Amino acid sequence: MKKLVAVFLAFLLFSTLLMSCAVSENGNGDDTGGNNIGTSATDNEQPLVDSNGYLLDSVPNDLNFGTTISILYWSDVEQPEFQVDEITGDIVKDAIYGRNLQTETRLGITLNWVGTLGNYDNQKNFVSTAFNSISSGGDYDIFAGYSMTGATLAVNGYVLDLKSLDYLDFEKPWWPDSLIGQATIGDKLYFASGDISTNMLHMMYAVFFNKRMITDFDLESPYDLVNSGAWTYTKMFEMATGIYSDLNANNTRDMNDRYGFATASIHYDAFFTGAGLNTVEKGENDWLIMSPTFNSEKTLTLLNDINSFMWNGNDGYHGSTGAIFALDNTIFTLDRSYMALLRKDEISFDYGIVPVPKFDEAQEKYYTCLGFPYTMYTISMATKQPEAAAATLEVLCSEAYRQTTPMLFETTMKYKYTSDDESVRMYDIIRESVSIDIGRIFTTELNNYSYSLFRNAVVNNTAGSWASTFKGSSKIFEKCLQAINDSLAELSAKQ
User: Fold this and answer.
1) Distance of alpha carbon 277 from alpha carbon 470, whole angstroms
2) Is the pLDDT of residue 34 over 50?
3) Superfamily of domain 205-369+432-494
4) Can you tell me the mean pLDDT for 436-456?
């Protein structure tokens, strides 16, 4: 068995090396999770990087906890990221298997993965399962839940401050600054994510475009627009105007017709984030306050422009984005990068991918919104082995950085589901531009207002009543924010 394990790990390292070489040849190696940010140390020091140039963690090599770490995870996850029982031949699943195996071997632990329903519709089930485990003496050491769930567990006082524990190093690249910075409240951090959640990469929003239709309609290259900083939502809508055609001649707008742009209700959030807007930000002493951008002129302008395009003409389609894009009759589609995987067997034409467009050319950078179905990790307040749990999280995440992320992002997403080098580079821009709105993480505690107000105003075409809608909701929103701050302050005082 030991020989088989050794062979498998060697295979993983060799595969990663091959991928790294391919990336280097395309000039993209410096921008990936495997940055060559250090060199090997002397023989008397712990190496800074592995043989492929991937940064190593600082967890001691001589740890041997000799225990079982039990992890409660949401079993209705979009794509596998937790337990993989055997080598399957799928490079991502095999990398997850290798990540888990390395973690067990390095720390002298056994990972006990226990699944329960916990997606958006089943959040209450996950939280109640966590609570019951705490009440019964602590069945689980780690909770790995749907993105909103980590905040709910924190507000209810069910988890530990991660910054108070040894072994976790949030300065390392496998813990993204965009999340850790936002999630640290009152110098406490109760939930975190990063490379440890493969679904985080799947949930990055982007715009897919049909290359043939760009050529047929003699439109500007979206790649060139991104590179010049001119890729804005108004430019995209301009390019998508005048495209509609009733292809099936049934005098009804349906998915068999030709459109300039398509998306679905859950994806309008990406426009809001892409414009550099937020629902919540941190004020004095890092406590949460409503962002002044939430109800700004910029928000209203964006809302009016989206509604005008989507509802006052025929060029915008609202519905099943992946399905209609696969029919080869839509120029632009706004969706999560996950769509490329979901529709890989249906899309038979060349397409490109670019970031979510900016608000205007004056905006300095692109901002990438994350869809909700990724995993937030917490450590149970009832764990009897917090340090072992913390070491487990650190090693799982660092091994994911070196094993799963290269296989998923570099090999699969960037090369398997793209057709040109420009899209490969766009993926790097998209990933580097991920922006976290802390209000989205606390969505459940904010009565869903942090995403529903803007989204519903688009879906229901009610931009004209935005001011009154926001005024009617803002008092509840502020009360919810105060309740969150009070709960976290109480939890902080106890720990």
Assistant:
1) 15
2) no
3) Periplasmic binding protein-like II (3.40.190.10)
4) 96
